Amino acid sequence: MAFLAQLATDFIGMFQKGGEVFGSLVVGIVPLLIVLMTFVNALVALIGPEKIDRLGEKAGSEGIKYYPLRYIVLPFVSVFFLTNPMAYTMGRFLPEKYKPAFYDAAVSYVHPPLGLFPHINPGEIFVWAGIANGITQLGLPLGDLAIRYALVGLVVIFMRGIITEKLTAVMSARAASEA
After folding, report:
1. CA triplet 159, 147, 132: central angle to 5 degrees?
2. What is the pLDDT of residues 1-15, one digit of tens each?
């Protein structure tokens, strides 16, 4: 009987702990996300959506000099301003041959900047919160980690964009030759 009582206590304790965590999120991260999303929407209104659209059109230009614009700047701006999953819609300005690579870059950048910009992908904030909790328990600063995550993410999306663009070109050429 003592075993069953302990099992019941532990079972309900698990939900009590979950409630505590949920409560801390409601008074901690949720207001932050709401204010940050409001700020980003105001910033888009101030800059003008047409200027952001023009950036997407320019990124679709031919040439290696447009790689950083296409696979670093455009994914970052898309993810920052449009957030996940709307960020992928910026690919509409690119020629078909660049769309898979842009998508790969953008989808790969919705997690790395969460420590700096949690509004980007609120559904993933729990991943960052878990990492942040571990880093905090070690007594290490979160700011350094957040900046490193975001910067490494930019390098990774740049490489992924270029590689995916090349793979897409090879696969398209192969498909055209088989047709």
Report:
1. 115
2. 788 778 888 888 888
